[in-house]
Amino acid sequence: MKIGITGGAGFIGRHLCEQLSRNNEVYCIDSLVTGSEENLKDLDVTFIKHDIVNNLDLKLDQIYHMASRASPKDFDSHALEIALTNSTGTLNILKMAKKYNASVLIASTSETYGDPLVHPQNELYRGNVNTTGPRSCYDESKRFAETLGYVFSKDITVRIARIFNTYGPYMQIEDGRMIPNFISQAIRNQPVTIYGDGTQTRSFCYVDDLVRGLVLLMNSNNGELNGSPVNLGNPEEHTIYDMAVKIKEMTGSSSDIVFLPLPEDDPKKRKPDISKAMQYLNWKPEKTLDSGLKETINYFKNQIMNPKN
Ligand code: UDP
Fold it and tell me: How many CB atoms lie within 10 A of CB 61?
């Protein structure tokens, strides 16, 4: 099969490239604003440098549409870019898919639930998103991407994955999200920066588990999934404070833990209900947090000691 992966040089996209290029002709489409060609070295993929906000014409069988900045650190500085990537960019990808009758998997997000009032979150929950807050460029444009996916699902196969917090090797050290921050701070014996009091929660899925779920979702023949979102994430919930302590312990770090202001609209709780993925895809995460963190810490140690690797 000919498979396109937008955002293929980024974190999750790179793992998809690795897995899918074993048996398919893979086209990695990336603007390189956050991804890096370095991530693709050793992979048998065709790289196309392209910003999906502009039209693209490529005859493919399947497209994993992963492109977008996803770190809250970028939501302020790159708000318009993010809003357009997920709206105009998604439209361009869906139009191209329709032209060639390709299937599309849209990478949506747990952020579509905003700061959720329902816990855990299942796909029927419609969310609590601030349309004009600092996260809205991401949250609302991903919600709109889902709407576009639903509209196009009348004509082509569209799968929508609501991806919860995911971590693993190939996250950027400077990504700004919690796991790369805590691990790199701990390795460098710099202060580990908790935003707020650390009682907020997240549920962390190892990237290999997520990629397995994405491939199952894309290839499911169940018509009920067309244009219908599916949560993919690990339901094991942890406070941010506990994560800081665990990462400090696992790295043998002498870092202090410091408390910084909580960003506006930072969700207080997040945990996926994955009943739908279990029922339709027979999927659930397998990697334990300890073993996933161990691999991620090793990756970051190597990156920090050999910056050009
Ligand atoms: N966070 C933190 N310190 C950091 C980075 C993030 O305490 O250095 C918190 C952040 O405020 C949020 C949680 O960790 O409550 C997860 O943040 P992340 O950016 O990883 O992802 P989010 O789930 O917010 O998209």
Answer: 15
Q: Is the dihedral of CA 110, 72, 12, 243 positive or negative?
A: negative
6 domain-assigned: yes
Is residue 249, in this structure, part of any structural domain at all? Answer: no
- The number of folded domains in the chain is 1
In three-state secondary structure terms, 160 is strand
> Reduced to 3 states, what is the DSSP secondary structure of residue 295?
helix
Q: How far apart are CA 210 and CA 166, in angstroms?
A: 7
Please provide residue 92's backbone torsions phi and psi, each rounded to the nearest 5 degrees.
-60, -40
Rounded CA-CA distance 197/195 in Å is: 7
State the residue for tokens 């082509």. 156
Q: Give residue 218's pLDDT band: very low, low, confident or very high (50, 70, 90).
A: very high
**pTM, full prediction:** 0.98
In a domain, 188, yes or no: no
- Return the CATH number at 122: 3.40.50.720
| Per-residue pLDDT reduced to its tens digit, 184-216 | 999 999 999 999 999 999 999 999 999 999 999
For 111, the token pair is: 């952020």
pLDDT digits (tens, 9 = 90+) for 54-79: 999 999 999 999 999 999 999 999 99
138 in active site: yes
> Ligand 1 pocket: which residues have CB below 6 Å?
72, 165, 177-178, 181, 193-195, 200, 202, 240, 263, 266
pLDDT at 309 (0 to 100): 53
pLDDT at residue 225, as a whole number: 98
- Say whether 163 sits in a helix, a strand or coil: strand
- Give 307's pLDDT tier (boundaries 50, 70, 90): confident
Q: Which of 27, 64, 113, 138 is catalytic?
A: 138
CB-count burial class (<10 Å; 0-12, 13-18, 19+) for 155: exposed
Q: Which atom of ligand 1 is nearest to the CA of 195?
A: 7
> Does residue 42 belong to any structural domain of this protein?
yes
What does pLDDT average to over the chain?
Answer: 97
* Domain assignment of residue 214, given as a range: 2-166+205-235+271-287
